Amino acid sequence: MSLPALHKFEQTVERQLRLLELRKTLIERNIGRQLRLFEQKSDDIGKKIEEQIRQFERKRGIRLDDEVSFLRSWFERPLSTGAVTPSGKILARTMARYVDPHSDGPVVELGPGTGAVTEALVEAGVAPSRLVLVEFNPKFCRILRKRYPEATLVQGDAYSLRRLLETLLLQPAAAVVSGLPLVTKPIKMRLRLIRDAFDLMLPGAPFVQFTYSVASPLPRRLGGFSAEASERIWMNLPPARVWVYRRSDDGGRTGSISYLSSVVRPLSSDLR
Ligand SMILES: C[S@@+](CC[C@H](N)C(=O)[O-])C[C@H]1O[C@@H](n2cnc3c(N)ncnc32)[C@H](O)[C@@H]1O
C-alpha cells in the first residue's frame, strides 16, 4: 500500500472509531436517562401505592405498617426483598406446621422480614427464646427486635450461615425455616446454604422453604436430601408452595430418600 493510501486508511479507521465512541457515549447517556426515569417512576408508583394503603387504613380503621415497610424495601431492593408484601397467614402457618414445637434445640429463621412466619412459629408453640432470626435488612431488624426481644437476632447475610451461626448455636438446630428468595441466587450458593444448614441441624431435621416458583428451588436429586412439597397455596399473594428438605439418612452420600414427619399435616387442614 502506498503512503498516501495508508494515510487515508488510517484517517478512515480513526473516523470510524470516533463515530463508535460517540455512539457509545450516546447509548450510555440514554441508558442513564432511562434508569433515572425508571427510578423516578418506581418511586412515584411506590408513593401512590403507599398513599392508597394509607387511605384503605383510614377507611377501615386498621394499620398496615408491615405492608408499607415491605413495599418500601421492595422498591429499594426488589431482588433481595423478594416479595412486595409479607407472607399471608395461611402460608406462614403452613411453614410453621413443619416444625415440631416439642423438639429440642433452636429454631433458625432465615429472612424473617417483618415476622409473618415468626409469628406463626410462636403461635404454633415455639418459644420465642428458641428463635434465631437471621435478617440483613436493618429496617426489618428494628421491627423484629421490638416484637421478639427474647429471640436471638443476627443482622447478617444468611448465605454466610456457617460463619454466622457456628459458634452462636450451643446445640444443633431443630429446624431451619427460610423465607429467602432463593431462586434469585445461583444453584451453587443455594446448595452451599442448605448443606451448611444441615450441618447445623439435628439429623432428619427439616429445612423449610417457601417459593412462588413452580419448581423446587433446590434441585431435588442433586443435594443428597429428600424433598416434599405442600399443595400450592392459592390464598397467598402471589400463590406459593412450601418445600421441606431433609438430609438423607446416610448424611447425603447417596441419592434421596423420601421421609414424612409426623408433624406435617396436609395443607387442606389450614384452610378450615
Ligand atoms: C420474601 S421476603 C420473606 C419475609 C418473611 N419471611 C415473610 O414470609 O413475610 C425475604 C426476606 O429475606 C431477607 N433476605 C434476603 N436476602 C437475605 C440474606 N442474604 N440474608 C438475610 N436476609 C435476607 C429480605 O430482607 C426479606 O426480609
Q: Return the string of H and E elements.
A: HHHHEHEHEHEHEEEH
Compute the number of helices: 9
Which of globular, elongated, flat, extended, rod-shaped describes the shape? extended
- Small molecules bound in the structure, each named once: S-adenosylmethionine
Helical amount: 40-55%
Distance between the termini: 87 Å
What brief labels describe this structure?
single chain; 272 residues; alpha/beta; disordered C terminus; binds S-adenosylmethionine
What does this structure look like?
The protein has 272 residues and is an alpha/beta fold. It has nine helices and seven strands, in the order ααααβαβαβαβαβββα. The protein has helices at residues 3-60, 65-76, 78-81, 89-97, 116-123, 138-147, 161-165, 187-199, 268-271, and strands spanning 107-110, 131-135, 152-155, 175-178, 207-211, 225-229, 241-247. α1 (3-60) runs antiparallel to α2 (65-76). Mean pLDDT is 85; it is low at 252-272. S-adenosylmethionine binds next to α3, α5 and β2.
Topology:
Layout: H1 3-60, H2 65-76, H3 78-81, H4 89-97, E1 107-110, H5 116-123, E2 131-135, H6 138-147, E3 152-155, H7 161-165, E4 175-178, H8 187-199, E5 207-211, E6 225-229, E7 241-247, H9 268-271
Parallel strand pairs: 1-2, 1-4, 2-3, 4-5
Antiparallel strand pairs: 5-7, 6-7
Helix pairs in contact: 1-2, 4-5
Bound molecules: S-adenosylmethionine (SAM).
S-adenosylmethionine (SAM) binds at residues 80-83, 86-87, 111-113, 116-117, 134-137, 140, 157-159, 179-181.
